[in-house]
Known about the structure:
Largest sheet: 14 strands, antiparallel
Shape: globular
CATH architecture of the domain at 104-280: Beta Barrel
Structural class: mainly beta
Low-confidence stretches: 1-22, 176-188, 217-224
Amino acid sequence: MKKSLIALAIASAVSAPAFAATANVDVYGRMAYSVDYADTNDLVGDGADVVTGRDNVSRFGLKGTEDLGNGLAAIWQVETALNTSTTGVGTLRNTFVGLSSKSMGTVILGRHDTPYKLATGNLDIFADTAGDYNTIIGTTANGTIYDNRSPQIVAYMSPSWTGFSFAAAYMEVKRNENDPLQGGAAANDNQQGYSAMGKYVNGPIFASLAYETFAGGLGGNSTTTEETEAFKAGLGVKLGALQLGAVYEMIDDNFAGSEDERDAYYMNAMYSIGAFDLKAA
């Protein structure tokens, strides 16, 4: 019996990688944890030093492709967050099915980062940390409603033509899924949204423009509507070991008759020394 079990285990170990290679399935993930220090002050000036452990969006995923011939491939991905500091398994991240062609681009359906978010994602040098630029970019007094991952999206992403590319998407979302300030009993009806971006990459130079808009009801039988729109531009340049980035964003958020219009600016610098990066924003 012991010999049979050992033989079965060896056979499984040999056949599993072969099956994964045949089915074009990749298993991937990352564990990211940090110890953060913060010096905070409240409205009356009382300060507090806080040292805490933080999970920086650890994740696990499966993705695969299937060659359909003539340069066309079926693609899919399932990815979930692994929150090591709280519940363990977190919410779904980019999870979708689609078709991809090197000459014609990619179409996806499912849950995915919006084109608006993708437009300047590479300029967020502190992404998925306490210094993530989403404390500024994509955020209004009504909560973080832009620079998001849409739970229901149909998106097209073009190939690159001499450095130029673009993406466009149609979305149906519920505000309570994207805005923690508007959740729970105040969950809203579906909102329709459109997101688009264009970018140019040429050697050390990166530039992008993005626009996104939403419109929809405010839950239940409400006849009140919400209309929001945002525009942003990003610019990056790499000068040897030095990388510089800047983002400008304008948001006009009209939620339940409360209009919040604001401009935001974000700048950063990163200098690479061997395997280490020095960052400031």
